[in-house]
Design brief:
This protein has 492 residues and is of the alpha+beta class. Helices cover 48% and strands 26% of the residues. It has a six-stranded antiparallel sheet. It has a five-stranded antiparallel sheet with strand order 8-7-11-10-9, sandwiched between helices. Strand 9 and strand 10 form a beta hairpin. Helix 10 packs antiparallel against helix 11, helix 12 runs parallel beside helix 13 and helix 13 packs antiparallel against helix 15. The longest helix is centred in the middle third of the chain and has 48 residues. The structure holds adenosine-5'-triphosphate (ATP) and magnesium ion. Adenosine-5'-triphosphate (ATP) binds next to helix 13 and helix 15.
């Protein structure tokens, strides 16, 4: 039994050996085929240089096999940043390396090659497999350049840019101009959903939905939007939203048009103002002379008619005086009056004005409450002009409360050397459209109004380098705020 088994094993081992040889032969052929046919360039080398290279390697290196043999592959490398040294070091320590380098071929062509090198890969020789990735590299380079360009535009643009993802609407980037215009820091917005960011900024949900609906339907949307920043300042923006500007990113660009709108509005008003001014100067000149004659002759007639017709005489004199004062009012518009600026106590000026209007207020069942801060410094101003402003504003306040009510006047000093005067009524207020029209010449809603009171007031305050702001809510009342600087250019 034992012998027999031995014989069996021996026979089996002969068969095995021949099949291994067969396999080895096949492997060698396969290996040769792979080497020859491979799309990748395969180079065998040792310390003396290249021993063998396949077709693809010859193509990549733009050389014949004869040219390549004996050369060292590193002679082809263009090393700008010490990357080659790193590759060699890794190969020595690890025994293999995979990387990409720029090569220059004998015909001058530059190629980016991705390679894997292995020491002692076959029969003690080293092997490197190359693949030409120039095209991919150039595409990546272009993409990087495009991204860089976009980044530069994004970061440096004067317009505000916000990028958000199309799928979950998450904001991914905000440029510095956007953050500045919206008075937020970038981190406040990044990570929020676009819609909730809009709502947090004060855009109403209806408005936001309306724009986003159009945007989703049409792939883009543009328009103008207004809201108050967290500082309370109201801002107007023009915007344009674009769908999918980059891979799944939407972009909104916007600019602040608040100043532009204000300027347009002022221009519109001052245009009318100039026309009125010229007209006023003409009328005043033409009417003043006959008026002087009329007044003079009427006064001459006084002794003869006063006794018999004293009532008529008084009416005539009163009406003539009224015409005179209207002409004077017009003249303020036409050219600056001979104004006399001096250091005055603004509280005192207000007190005198309120005294002047006291009787009229009582008549209309109106209570005037005063809330003045102590120690308000003297203001460099033209007291009669300021009185005119206060009279106009208080008269308006009285006129909007036909059933009576309360007028609250306050004067206080603000930081930054400013005086703040406010006149508040409980009248019927104004719609935003009416508010817009304030200060336009001849804008009146009163039967007997001239619509010049506020225009004159705005003009006077502007001459004092101050501003008037109006807050009004329909049905609740109106507050006129006057801000006057303590230090004025006109002082010197
Ligand atoms: N306190 C206020 N509340 C509501 N509306 C006001 C107020 N002040 C002014 N207005 C509106 O502004 C308009 C213009 O005011 P403005 O003082 O310039 O002219 P007026 O009062 O109509 O005429 P006048 O001043 O010559 O009597 C008023 O007609 C009124 O509609
Ligand atoms: Mg008025």
């Amino acid at each position: 039994m034992k012998e027999r088994r031995f014989f069996d094993e021996d026979e089996q081992s002969v068969a095995e050996k021949s099949s291994i040889r067969e396999l080895e032969k096949k492997n060698a052929e396969l290996y040769k085929d792979l080497f020859i046919e491979a799309i990748d360039g395969i180079v065998f080398w040792n310390d003396e240089g290249v021993i063998d290279a396949n077709e693809s390697a010859c193509k990549i290196f733009e050389s014949s096999i004869e040219d390549l043999k004996g050369r060292r592959i590193f002679e082809f490398v263009i090393d700008h940043d010490g990357r080659y040294d790193k590759v060699v070091k890794t190969l020595r320590t690890e025994g293999s390396v995979r990387d990409e380098l720029l090569y220059i071929m004998p015909n001058g062509q530059k190629k980016y090659l991705e390679f894997t090198s292995k020491l002692n890969a076959v029969d003690g020789n080293h092997m490197t497999i190359f693949r030409n990735v120039t095209e991919r590299y150039e595409m990546e380079q272009q993409l990087r350049e495009r991204e860089n360009k976009f980044r530069n535009v994004f970061e440096g643009a004067l317009e505000g840019f916000i990028l958000w993802r199309d799928d979950n609407e998450e904001i991914v980037d905000v440029n510095p101009s956007a953050a500045k215009m919206l008075d937020v820091i970038k981190e406040d917005l990044v990570g929020q959903s676009f819609l909730s960011a809009l709502e947090n900024l004060g855009v109403t949900k209806e408005k936001a939905d309306e724009y986003l609906d159009t945007f989703k339907r049409a792939g883009q949307s543009e328009g103008a939007i207004s809201f108050s920043l967290k500082s309370g300042v109201k801002k107007h923006f023009e915007f344009s939203m674009k769908h999918n500007v980059f891979s799944d990113l939407n972009l909104i660009t916007f600019k602040d048009i608040t100043e532009k709108l204000q300027l347009e509005e002022e221009l519109r008003k001052s245009d009318t103002l100039n026309v009125i001014g010229e007209l006023a100067a003409g009328i005043a000149h033409e009417i003043r002379n006959p008026m002087t004659a009329l007044k003079g002759f009427i006064q001459l007639l006084e002794p003869t008619i006063k006794d018999k017709h004293s009532l008529y005489y008084d009416v005539i004199i009163n009406e003539l005086n009224r015409i005179d004062s209207i002409i004077n009012e017009f003249l303020i518009l036409a050219k600056p009056q001979a104004v006399q600026y001096s250091e005055r106590d603004i509280v005192q000026i207000m007190r005198e004005t309120v005294d002047l209007l006291g009787a009229q207020a009582v008549l209309h069942n109106i209570q005037i409450c005063m809330d003045y801060e102590y120690n308000i410094p003297n203001l460099f101003c033209e007291p009669n002009q300021l009185k005119k402003v206060f009279i106009n504003l208080i008269k308006n306040a009285i006129e909007v409360m036909p059933e009576g009510g309360k007028i609250t006047i306050s004067i206080n000093q603000l930081k930054g050397e400013k005086i703040h005067i406010s006149i508040k009524d409980e009248g019927f207020g104004m719609t935003p459209e009416k508010l817009q029209k304030l200060g336009e010449p001849f804008y009146t809603t009163k039967e007997k109004g001239t619509g010049l009171g506020l225009m004159v007031s705005f003009r006077i305050i502007a001459e004092h380098q101050g501003v008037i702001e109006v807050e009004s809510e329909e049905g609740l009342g109106t507050i006129f705020h006057i801000y006057l600087p303590l230090q004025q250019g006109g002082k010197d």
